[in-house]
Amino acid sequence: MSDAVSLGKPKPALSKGVLIALACIAAAGLAMLLGGRVITQQIISGLMLGSIYMTVAVAFTLTIGVLNFLNFTIPTLFMLTGMVAWGLLARGYLAGFGGWAWLLALLAGIAVSILASLVVERFTFRYLKTRHGDATEHAIPLVSSLGFLLIFEHLVLIALGSEAQRFPVPFKADLYLGGLVIGLPQLASLALALGIVAGLTYVLKQTRMGRALRTIAESPDTASLLGVEVARIVPIVFILTGLLSGVAAALFTVNYGDVSPFMGEHIGTKAIAAMVLGGLGSVWGAVAGGLIVGLAETLSIHFLGGDSVQMVVWGMLLLVIILRPQGLFGASSIGKGKM
Amino acid sequence: MSGYATGIVAILCINLIFAYAIFVTAAAGQLNLGGAGFQAIGAYTAAWLSSNAGQPVVVTIPLAMVTTALIGFLISFPVLRTRGVYMVLATFAFGQFVSGFLLRSPTFGGAIGMVVSDYVGIGLLIAAAIITTALVFFLMASRLGLAIRSIHDDEPVSTIMGVNVRAVQVTTFTIGGALAGLSGALYAHHFSFVEAQYFNSLLSIYVLLFVLIGGTQTAWGPLVGSLFFTLLPEVLRVGGSWRYVVFGVAIVAMMVLRPQGIVTRELVSRLSPRNWFGSRPAPAARMADGG
Questions:
Q1: Does B78 touch chain A (CB under 8 A)?
Q2: SS3 A9
Q3: Would an 8 Å CB–CB cutoff place A135 in contact with chain B?
Q4: Boundaries of every domain in chain A
């Protein structure tokens, strides 16, 4: 699986980020020339939405790349962040902090997401490395994570109710650029999301911990023979998963201003689509996939109507799986199963 | 039977047939997370034939099964190029695409859904569930079943022993498709209404859980799994949302304590009448377990 995980390839991270940023600007500019303002606006919103998908897709791809585990709790971690942040504000626990309460609430939400992710690691991954020798054993952590999905979702429903809620964002700043509306929080979130991914790539490539993670991705057994403490490194993947889902949820909440106990499902399935599109285990593949899915969503709503999104996105994905099972940027040996 | 009990028995029968559809592929080691897509195709085929083409139930149900069997056959070729997590994702994409397509299609009523004209009573549902169960038990005891089990336990060794792995896997996808179509057609005719939103990803997830919690080693697995899953929420109904929390905890605990599913070959052989008077499991079971 070594070449499947492009976490391991020596590619300059920064230049890729710059490349993607340039591609985004080029796409917007080209659309401006060809399709006029309305289309450009759609493309800008698509890229902004895509930055949220992208962050969640990176969380998915990291767990699959390193642990070969499809973590279905990621959508609930996303939801948990938004709902916990709203709950803290609505119950007035942060009333003493004045204007910064919303930020503290979101940070607390992210912390809860990381903690929840560690709980998942404790019960899903640590005890489940049993091998009973069948073909379906790789599904055990998957089933377990589905159990956690039920637990977290319904605990939130019990504690905070089932209604969608308005999250009070104290600022509303839009940038007007030649008749186009660009939300500043959206721009900031695109930059922040790309920054986090670039940082992650740096950590994976350049640090000792990143090298340990890449070794585990290649072969857990060899890694532990070579002195990598697998049991201590694996929780880091879950911390990163919680962090990425939490940050994505915080960005989503600030941009769209509402939270609900079901907000994770929509984002989660789209992020899975983005990850598969880009290629499993490939961080920059997930980035590109996220932006493509975001674009496909806003453009298909614009041209074909709101109901068509699911068909367009998943039809595109089905085609990619049939024609190029490794995804757009993945290597061909993916999905062989190892842990 | 009261209306409430009839409703539960109907859902149990449909879930059971649906679970066997997913089980047949899972028994050969292939996980299908797009079950709802197959069931939806069966349900909508039956609904369309019944309401728009005016066909009787004896035509709609078999035709729905043939359609889904054909789709299962065709989809198995691209899907079987993938393995493990990737196969789970490929089938998931298929399920999502089908429900997205139905949501969008004016022929099938779009988001409004479709009314089904012919009604099928609870008796036929129970009969179909019993026949399906018996057929799957027969299948697993046949030569093909032996091949399926050998692929489940060890694919390379099965190939060495002369099992045509690809042919068996395509067959299981086809049989699975037909059974999912049957469950969908029965759903459409019994509840007289189909809507795309019912066949969502959560349904695919649940039915795969039935099978994996029940156990993929023997045909008892889906039976126990769907009984457990359909009846446990009813038993826990008092607790409101808490019952799902308990349910989730039960799933996580199951995976920690008994990851191979509730029913295993060893358990079946220990419970079989042949071994009632001896405490040792049968030699065959020990071999299967050690392997």
A1: yes
A2: coil
A3: yes
A4: 2-323
